[in-house]
Amino acid sequence: MRILIGTDMEGVAGVIDHDTWVTPQGQYYERGKELLTREVNAAIEGFFAAGADYIQVSDGHGYGGLTLELLDKRVEYRRGWSPYPYPGGLGEGFDCFAVVGQHPKAGTEYGHISHTGWFNVLDKRLNGISIGEFGMAVFICSELGTTPIFGSGDLAFTKEAKALVPGIETVAVKRGLTPGMGSECDTDQYRNQNLAAIHTHPEKARELIRQGAYDAMTRYLKDPASFH
How much is the pTM? Predict the structure, then answer.
């Protein structure tokens, strides 16, 4: 059973904003990378415990989001942009797809650090469906026959994920507090508009992610159709 885990930083418990936590010049960037890596490791532990044979981790954060020395050594790691065969490494014969640290799509009310690609995007649509970064991966998965089985991030993201993949297993590790879609903001205003959130303690978040990944893999092995 082969799993690809895609990662991002803005949906991690304890990551507070874009400028100081997820960019190389940010004073908490290394701490943010560590928090993400430990959440990814929790998912890896859950997947392997439930029966996964192979896991590849695809670092989906633009600046790089993982501390490699801390990453579970049982997995392989993908980094570097290439659209071939598909973005993020999809298309290499994976059975399942999962995401850790995912933020909501642009314009999401009560989303934490919501954006799609960058903060100047108001809405992105494919076949009339509003999608974010996770949604793009879901459409690719549907073409390839890969099943999205797990996602962790903020509460708004988990709702977005379930709207696209009703059977997906999700874990919310924080919840945003800012109302409104931000359509009145310019790029810089929107980047700093939806930063308030209530976070789960990082250790508790990892426990939830580990269990969620385990449950997702266990259910997939028993009833893969339940994710569709």
Answer: 0.95
